[in-house]
DNA sequence: TATTGTTATACTCTATAACTATA
DNA sequence: TATAGTTATAGAGTATAACAATA
């Protein structure tokens, strides 16, 4: 029962929870739900990606993803395009308006929630990034290695 | 736009997401939803707490909490008791069965998801705990200091 | 036959606000 | 008047499974 990693996980959860509480207010203020913001944030600064990839990155299952994307499409924030190489597949990307929201809402969320880091030094950041990167590595290694990933465009 | 903390937050989110993916399978297998598991995990190893406190710790708003607790009560996993000192307030705690689930599901989730830490050294844990504790501190400091907290029982 | 995305169902969570009963 | 919890409502996310089109 004395699994030491539990303390880290609890800290991890508390940090995430705290940060979400901090940023959540600004997310909601933008009229986006958490899941929708997740999608926008994931698509931001990318050329777009398939439903499959989007689902994997955001932990949203395909059935749900249809609905979330649908609402974002209605809002004119994302657009879909049939993939050329696999006609079953859609390519989802931000529209101009979606990019505007990303560039608008994101920095606002960022600047507000980033205030708490005012006194962090470069060394503090380095240490944090290092330990989190290692943590991410072991966690991701725990997932099945099956990520076939076909080259396409 | 080059806010350095973003990298840390992204790593944080990826770690949390990865861990939830890892543990989520076992949580669902127990028949609990994520929110329900949150409650059980929060109540575990405590004498119980009020709705208010529970809501603060889990980020679940009071209106929602009523429903979540209701379902857990129906399952016989938690019980409520009027607070002596404040009759508006309920005291929520795990039942015997709830403790059994906590002691049963939790370790299973823990042992399965903990496998990825097999090669972590005490130093690795120390470093992780240290950086996360610091992170938690600055994040929590970002919340309003108003946590009056009345002593009671 | 396997995979991508859709549809349908049933349930759960969420935000919000009006309400009650206590304080 | 303010606070703890309830109720009601509308919207959104979730798991799951059956389905179409494509690979």
From TrEMBL, chains A, B:
Pfam family, one: MarR
InterPro entries: HTH_MarR-typ, Tscrpt_reg_MarR-type_CS, WH-like_DNA-bd_sf, WH_DNA-bd_sf
Top-level taxonomic group: Bacteria
Domain HTH marR-type per the UniProt entry, residue ranges: 2-137
Coiled coil (UniProt feature): none
Keywords: DNA-binding, Transcription, Transcription regulation
GO function term, MF aspect, one: DNA binding
Gene3D superfamilies reported for this sequence: Winged helix-like DNA-binding domain superfamily/Winged helix DNA-binding domain
This protein's name: MarR family transcriptional regulator
């Amino acid at each position: 029962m004395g699994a030491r990693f539990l303390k880290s996980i609890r800290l991890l959860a508390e940090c995430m929870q705290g940060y979400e509480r901090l940023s959540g207010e600004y997310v909601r203020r933008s009229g986006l739900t958490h899941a929708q913001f997740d999608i926008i944030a994931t698509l931001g600064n990318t050329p777009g990606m398939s439903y499959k990839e989007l689902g994997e990155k955001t932990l949203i299952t395909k059935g749900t993803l249809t609905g979330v994307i649908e609402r974002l499409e209605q809002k004119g924030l994302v657009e879909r395009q049939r993939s050329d190489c696999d006609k079953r597949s859609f390519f989802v990307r931000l529209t101009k308006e979606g990019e505007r929201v990303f560039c608008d809402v994101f920095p606002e969320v960022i600047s507000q929630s980033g205030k708490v880091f005012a006194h962090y030094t470069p060394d503090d950041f380095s240490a944090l990034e290092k330990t989190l990167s290692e943590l991410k590595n072991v966690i991701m290694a725990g997932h099945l290695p099956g990520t076939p990933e076909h080259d396409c465009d």
